[in-house]
Each structure stands twice: as C-alpha cells, then as structure tokens.
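So, can you check these tokens?
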Amino acid sequence: MRPVSAIPDFYYFCFAVYEPFLTITGFIGALIDPKTTHNSQAPWLTSDPPPETLPTATLVTIVQLGHVCALVGLVNLFVLSAARTHLHANLPLQEKMVFALLTPLVIGDILHLYITLWALGDQKWQFWNWSPMLWTTIILGLTLMVPRIAWHLGYGRYVHTRDGLVVEKR
C-alpha cells in the first residue's frame, strides 16, 4: 500500500514531538544553568579551564541560542500540524510545504555536525576527551538528521512523482 501522507506518523513524531521536546528541554537547561550549558559544549584543556563566571555577552548568547532552538522546534510542531490538518486532501501541496520546512533543517543538521567537529580542531577525533554534552549533541543531532535525510529520499511517505498517479486513480 502506498503512503497517503507526506508527513506520516513516524516523521510527525520525530519532527513535531521529539524535536520540540529536545529543543525546549535544551532551552530550559540553558535558562536554569547557562554556565554549565556553556562549559560542557566541548572539552577544556587542563591548562585553560573554563571561566568561573560567564561574561554578560556570553550569557546572553547562550540564552538566545537556546531560545532560537526552542523556536525552531515550535515552528516544526505548528507547521507540520497545519500541513497534516489542512493539506491532507492536497498531498502534492502538503509535500511541498513539508519539503520547504525540512530542507533548510537538513542543511542545518549537516552544517551543525560539520561546524561542531571543525570547531573542536585537533580534538575532534579524540572521542575519549569529549564531554557528555558533546556526545549528546552529536548523537541527538544524528537522530534528527537521519530521519530528515530518509524523508528527503522518500522512505515511508507520499512522494508525488512516485505516488501521485496511484492516488489520483483511486
């Protein structure tokens, strides 16, 4: 049986439930303890320990970054919910709207992974020195990037160029 939605349950759960949960949780963590959020992003050299107090600009940046991440999660929830609710009878348009949302996000996923590893410099392959937060960032990022790539490849969802004629004949 061909898929009859561009955003079936698995993808909806990943991007409209799981991702907002992760991003909102991260934002709350940054609000509660911005110093730990900052200091646990990457390993610190023993010769250059993390700061005891964060400069105001760093504090504001950490909280703003957390806010933007939470906002992205909420945008996912609202756009995907609207696409499922209001475009269920127009699958080609539903697919285009979801494509418009997920394409910049998959580009962001890839760049996020690349920039994170690039920023680690010589330490990028020293996995034993990675902080738990860095491991979490990489692994959770992959749990979103892989389904986004699968969505773009058409796995388990309506793809108009493949499924359009079958749906139209019904």
